Structures are given as C-alpha cells and as structure tokens.
Q: What sequence folds into this?
C-alpha cells in the first residue's frame, strides 16, 4: 500500500477505536468490563472512560509482568515512539531473541485494552498510563530510570547549561533549547558517548555504575569530590535540588546498552513438580480426604444441632467459641475456621435471627444430609470455589486494627475465586500425579499479576494461593499435593482415559521407579459460568462416587463395653448408635463406648431395654457381650423408678425406703427435699435441676407429665428460618456475555453515528454537543422537507423516561403530531412524537 493509499493516522484514542471492528471492540470490553457499566453513548465517551485513572489502574494491575514492562518502557520512551524504539528499550543492543519474539504479543495486548494506540510508527501510551508509570521523584519507575536531560535542566540557568555544553566538547549555542538538544544528542549517540566516557576517571565510572540501574538519585555536598565534579561539569549528573543529583535517562540507557529493564521477563516461569505419584494413589488419597471433609462438616453441624455459639454484637464467632469448636473437631483453630466458613458459604449454617442470636443449621442442611456423599462433596467444593470469604484472614487485623473473627464481617476478598481457580488450573497443566513446588506456583502467579513496587508484605494473591493449596488438600480436590481426577473435572477439564483413571492401588514411586506417562488435560483459563460450573461439579461427583467407601450396616461389639465401626455407617445406624454410646476415638475406624449415662440417654429418648437388645443383635457381627447386656438391663431396671414432676418439683416412688435413702443423703441438701407422703417428696428445685441432682447422686429418675406419664426427652434440632448462602463479593463488574456485548456494541455504534454524522453549514451542534434547539414550526418544516427529499436528518430526542439521546433518522411521513422514520442508529422503523424532538439539523450530502 502506497503512502497515499494508507488511511490517515488516528489523532486520538476515540479515532483509533472508531477504526476498530466489532471483534476488536468486543475484546476491549471483555478485558475491561468496567468500560461497559453503564454502556457508553458513543466511542468518544468510551475513549474518555478508558482514560480515567480508576479504569487505567485496574487495567494495569491485570497485566502480566512482560506486558507491564512493555508499558513501563513506553512510559520512558518518546511520545509517540516507533516500534523499533520500543524494541530497543526492551531487547537492548543485543536484541534478546525471546524478547523479540514476545514483544508483538505484548504490544497487541496493550492495544487490545486501549492502553496503547496508534500504528507501529506512532505508538502512544495512554496519557493516564504514562502519568502513572513515568519516573518522578515521588514515584520512581520500576525501570530505575530518571528524568530526561530536558526535564532535568528545566530550571537550570542558561549560563550553567552553556558551561556544561562546553565541558562536554560541544559548540556553544545561542539559546538554552538548542544547547539542551545538543547535549541530549550527544548522550544518545553511542559512538560520541563512548568517546566521552573513555576519558572519564575510573572512580567517576564507579559512581555511574552505582546509579545506572536505579534509584538514579544521589546526594552530594556543597563541594563535590573530583570524581563527582567531573560528571557534573559534563552533565552526566545533573542537579535537581540542593544537595541532590540525578543520572539523566539518556546516560543511563547508554550505560545499560539500551535496556529499559535490568531483566526482561518475556516468558512466564514454569510450574515445577516437586514430587510424582501414581494417579490412582492421588485419587484414592483425595477421596479419603473428601470423606473426612464430609464427616467433619457433619460433626460440626451435629455439635450445633441444638443451637450453636452466640453471635457477637459486631458479628461472628468469639475467640472462645472458635477454640471450643476446634477442640470438638480435634483440629487446629485455623482449620476449624475454614470448616465453619465453608459450611456458611454452602448455606448450611446461619444466624437464627432470634433476640438471643445464635448460629444454627439451616433447613438446607437437612436436605444436604439426604444427598449421596459425592453430591454433598460437590456442593461443598462448588461453594468453596466461588466464595469470596477467606478463612485464612481469621485472627488477623482489619484497617481499623480490629480482630477479624470467623463468620464476621471483613473477610471478603474479591480476588479469592480467581486465585483458587488459577492455582488449580496451574496444577492441571502438570502431568497427572505430579505435585507442584509451592514456590513455583507463587512465582507464576506473581508473573501473571506482578506487585506494584514488589511489595511482598502486601502480596494478598500469594497468601490466597497458599491457602488455596492447603484448602484443596483438606477438601480432597488434591491428594498428596497433586490434582485429582475429580479435581480436574471440577475445573471443566476433560477426564483422563479409563486406563489411566483405573487400576490397582500402588504406592508412590520411589527415586528409581519409572512412572507411567499420563499427559495432562488443559483446564479452562478463566472461572466457569454458574451453569458450566454446575455441569463440571456433577461430572466431578460422578468420578468421586466409586472411590468413596460404602456405608456399613454393622458394628463389632467388644467385651470392654465398646463397639468398633470399621468404616462409615449408614445414617439410621449412626444416628441410633450416637444416642446409645459415646464416641471414644475416630480415625480409620470409629470406637464407641457404652456407659450408664449413654444407655440412660437412649432410654430417655423412648427406647425400651428390649428395643436396645434387638438393635444391637441386629447390627453386630459379633454376639452381644454379657457385660453390655447386663449394663442395659441394670440401667433399665432403675430407669423411671423415681418420677419427677412439677410442684415446684416433686419426687414420687412406690418404695418409701428409696425416698428415705434420698432424704438421708447429704448430697441432696441443696435440692430442698421434704416428705409430703410416704411415697412423695417435694423439692424447692425445678424439675430439670431435680433430675440432674438425683442423677448425680447415682439414681435414674424419669420425668413425668402432669397426667403422670413418663416424658420422652429427645434432642430437638434447632434450625434457622430459610436462609440463602452468602453472595460472593464480585471483583468489579462481571465480564459481559455475548448477548449483552452485542447489544452494547450496537448501541455504541449507533450513538457514534449520531454524534459524528456531518452537518450542513449553519447546523452546527451546541457547545455541549447536543443538536441545535429548534422551535416546533421549524422542526415540522424540516421534517416535511426531509420526507419530500428522502434525506436523513439529525435530531435530539427525549423519551418518556426523560432520557436524552441523539439519532440519525430518514423521515417517511409526518402526520397527527408524529413522524415515522427509518432510524439509522437503531436500524429499524420507529415513530416519534414531534413534541419530544428537541432539535433538528440537516446532514451534509456525504453523510451516508
């Protein structure tokens, strides 16, 4: 294409956007969704919004390290810069081939996000981005470069500038501008600059070496040393303030051999495998962890079944309640906080909203319990992937130095879902069975989202990644650090071949073992939509189901009053055994212990001795031991022998000798007992306190109703009203879907057509860009004329909601106070009330 045939270079970002196709504009709006909220009226407004500080900061923070380095190099280049100049800053004199290969993609990414515009011969960094990235004394550039010669000499006297020019071996000039230009030309001329530095003292070169990679500022005294005086005289160091000097940018670039960055990083660091296991071992380990996760959540909710801890006034759990929960679950406090937050994110627990507010299970918990184990696991991990609440922050401090509590406010971090998904996606890129080195995962994430100024103490993404790795292991998404088959499915990655997914159990490979090769399946790079995630979670549940142990319908009774459950029990058996016995230990097998108190608990729940004997005989693979049968019969024989009712409270018994024994027992002095009749005692204590007091004395009383019937006491499950799971806090506006994007592009194009259509002379818009105001008679006359000529006109229109817009229409007919026209901006025929048209202007003949 000849120079004459080339389209003119865009003069602004709006013109550059106007030259883009719909696919390119769509890519911009997907990468920067904040630009579409709300939809801009035209491309000029889109360009203005793309240049706002908040939007540019957000876009820069989402660049990878090399793209950000490219933007930083453009910020220290001339404005505009050519692609060749940018390549020199990035690749240096040696033209690093990796940088040469990666730079076109980085420039294309910056162009796509409207941070850079213009052709390769006139690349322009967005002005706001340049202001953010260019070096300044207050905000040093990551490049370590200082100001240019022109910027550093801005306040210098003309005489001093001429002295520097003369000392550098340049001819004197008639003004300061040409002198500064000559000095900058010297510093950018490699041959002349090399000759100048060849005469420099060695210790002067040492000074330059210390400043060359930044920071470029140094301190000098009022009487500088000879090595500094030599540099100051020739402008190789320039004063910026009393006692402060700076290395000019041109000098630093010469010493750096043209490089803007000490180390360019065009290629992301790889994720290294720290260990390798057979995929079958990973899957079975992960399945065991998944089962433990289900059991832990069930135990947590069972512990809170009758009403959990109180809600703090500021919200959340108290430190003491979190400690109690950790002891009950037999886990460290940070892990207990994770399980509590996970149950909350899944909608299984919430506050009950009562006056004495407490945490309790929700009705959704009962529904969750009825689901198959794999589906219950799927619900937990799906909630974990999407949750913005971050349990790892519990125990830390917020901005006001207040302690962050579990279930309390201040735990939402909108970046958490993206980081979790990205961590798992990086694991999915490794061969199956490979566990990553955690530091390599963190290094990769830092490359993808570099820290501004490399502030390690503010590395939230790094901490989120570390928590994601440990939480994925707790949930069984990973096993032995490697992503499991069900974990890959959870990300939407294709499942492994059947031969790789099935096989005999094997131990991890040793140093000399040769592992079978199972190539990884790539996972989607972005989090899935809710519909896609539901499909992926269902696939993961199907893969997990065969790996979970089948619930058992039996236990092994032992002579020491214990029962051993060699695996998970079916729910009715587990529930009944949980009432009849106390859990003594957990692990691969659960040990239950029978005591007089636990048997009495079952009798209080309405069971008879015969029912307990039948239950144990039906579910034990071993004969019921005689000591256990004796224990049940002995407790049942005494159970209900005493009856406690409400007087304030009373005790009645057919055997008056037993009542005499109670009255004689000093331990009952606090109950305030006195005999009313040979078989009845009255008490000052309430019925509950009387029951507990008599049991503490070794008796087995039963409560009775006002009618004299034995009351059956069952633990009442306390449930909250229906509660929705907490909504994740979004990380900015969501990425628009295809439907919204198409509608937005159409509206932007239409508005741009209306705002840029050429007008006839005398039809110029008002100062604010709106069509000129016209009276009703002029509007009607112009419309009627346009119907006769078939020409399009430019109108201002206010709809019934009061929203003003500009439109380009071709009137078809005017009658009854309405104009029917083809609306070019909407691409359809519409009818407009004439009284809502605020102004009309004729378009130029070439407006089409």
A:
């Amino acid at each position: 294409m000849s120079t004459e045939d080339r389209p003119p270079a865009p003069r602004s970002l709006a013109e550059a956007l106007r030259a883009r196709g719909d696919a390119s504009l769509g890519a911009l709006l997907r990468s920067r969704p904040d630009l579409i909220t709300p939809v801009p009226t035209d491309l000029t407004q889109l360009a203005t919004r793309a240049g706002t500080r908040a939007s540019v900061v957000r876009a820069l923070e989402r660049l990878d390290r090399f793209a950000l380095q490219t933007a930083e190099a453009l910020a220290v280049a001339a404005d505009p810069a050519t692609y060749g100049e940018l390549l020199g800053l990035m690749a240096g004199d040696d033209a690093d081939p990796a940088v040469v290969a990666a730079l076109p993609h980085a420039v294309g990414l910056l162009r796509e996000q409207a941070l850079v515009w213009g052709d390769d011969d006139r690349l322009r960094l967005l002005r706001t981005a340049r202001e953010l990235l260019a070096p300044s004394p207050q905000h040093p550039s990551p490049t370590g470069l200082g100001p240019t010669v022109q910027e550093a000499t801005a306040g210098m006297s003309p005489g001093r500038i001429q002295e520097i020019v003369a000392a550098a071996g340049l001819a004197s000039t008639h003004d300061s501008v040409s002198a500064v230009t000559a000095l900058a030309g010297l510093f950018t001329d490699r041959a002349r600059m090399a000759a100048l530095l060849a005469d420099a003292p060695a210790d002067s070169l040492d000074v330059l070496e210390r400043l060359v990679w930044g920071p470029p500022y140094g301190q000098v005294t009022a009487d500088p040393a000879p090595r500094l005086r030599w540099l100051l005289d020739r402008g190789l160091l320039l004063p910026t303030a009393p006692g402060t000097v700076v290395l000019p940018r041109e000098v630093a670039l010469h010493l750096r051999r043209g490089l803007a960055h000490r180390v360019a990083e065009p290629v992301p660091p790889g994720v290294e495998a720290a260990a390798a296991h057979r995929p079958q071992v990973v899957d079975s380990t992960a399945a065991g962890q998944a089962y433990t996760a289900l059991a832990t959540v069930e135990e947590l909710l069972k512990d809170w079944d009758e009403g959990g801890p109180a809600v703090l006034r500021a919200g959340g759990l108290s430190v003491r309640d979190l400690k109690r929960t950790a002891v009950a679950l037999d886990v460290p406090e940070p892990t207990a906080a994770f399980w509590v937050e996970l149950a909350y994110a899944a909608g299984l627990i919430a506050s009950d909203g009562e006056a004495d507010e407490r945490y309790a299970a929700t009705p959704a918990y009962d529904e969750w319990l009825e689901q198959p184990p794999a589906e219950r696991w799927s619900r937990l991990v799906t909630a974990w992937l999407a949750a913005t609440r971050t349990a790892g922050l519990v125990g830390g401090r917020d901005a006001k130095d207040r302690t962050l509590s579990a279930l309390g406010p201040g735990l939402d971090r909108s970046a958490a879902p993206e980081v979790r998904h990205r961590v798992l996606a990086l694991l999915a890129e490794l061969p199956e069975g490979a566990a990553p080195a955690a530091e390599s995962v963190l290094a990769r994430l830092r490359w993808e989202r570099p820290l501004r100024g490399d502030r390690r103490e503010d590395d939230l993404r790094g901490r989120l990644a570390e928590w994601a790795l440990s939480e994925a292991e707790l949930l069984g998404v990973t096993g032995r650090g490697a992503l499991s088959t069900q974990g890959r499915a959870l990300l939407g990655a294709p499942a492994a071949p059947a031969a790789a997914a099935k096989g005999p159990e094997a131990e991890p490979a040793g140093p000399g073992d040769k592992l079978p090769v199972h190539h990884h399946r790539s996972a989607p790079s972005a989090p899935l939509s809710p519909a896609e995630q539901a499909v992926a979670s269902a696939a993961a549940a199907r893969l997990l189901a065969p790996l979970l142990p089948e619930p058992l319908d039996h236990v092994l009774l032992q002579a020491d009053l214990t029962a051993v459950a060699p695996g998970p029990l079916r729910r009715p058996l587990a529930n009944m055994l949980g009432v009849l016995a106390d859990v003594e230990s957990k692990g691969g097998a659960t040990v239950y212990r029978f005591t007089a108190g636990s048997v009495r608990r079952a009798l209080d729940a309405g069971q008879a001795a015969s029912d307990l004997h039948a239950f144990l005989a039906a579910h034990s693979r071993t004969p019921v031991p005689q000591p256990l049968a004796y224990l049940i019969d002995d407790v049942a024989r005494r159970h209900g022998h005493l009856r406690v009712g409400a007087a304030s409270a009373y005790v009645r018994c057919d055997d008056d000798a037993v009542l005499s024994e109670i009255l004689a027992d000093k331990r009952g002095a606090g109950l305030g007992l006195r005999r009313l009749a040979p078989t009845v005692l009255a008490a000052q204590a309430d019925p509950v306190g009387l029951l507990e007091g008599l049991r503490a004395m070794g008796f087995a009383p039963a409560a009775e109703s006002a009618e004299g019937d034995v009351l059956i006491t069952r633990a009442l499950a306390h449930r909250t009203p229906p509660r929705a799971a907490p909504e994740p806090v979004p990380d900015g506006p969501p990425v628009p879907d295809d439907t919204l994007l198409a509608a937005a592009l159409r509206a932007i194009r239409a508005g741009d057509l209306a705002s840029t259509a050429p007008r006839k002379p005398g039809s110029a818009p008002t100062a604010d860009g709106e069509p000129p105001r016209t009276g009703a008679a002029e509007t009607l006359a112009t419309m009627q004329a346009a119907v006769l000529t078939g020409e399009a006109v430019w109108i201002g229109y206010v709809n019934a909601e009061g929203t003003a817009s500009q439109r380009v229409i071709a009137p078809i007919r005017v009658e009854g106070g309405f104009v029917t026209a083809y609306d070019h901006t909407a691409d359809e025929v519409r009818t407009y009330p004439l009284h809502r048209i605020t102004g009309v202007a004729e378009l130029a003949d070439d407006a089409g």
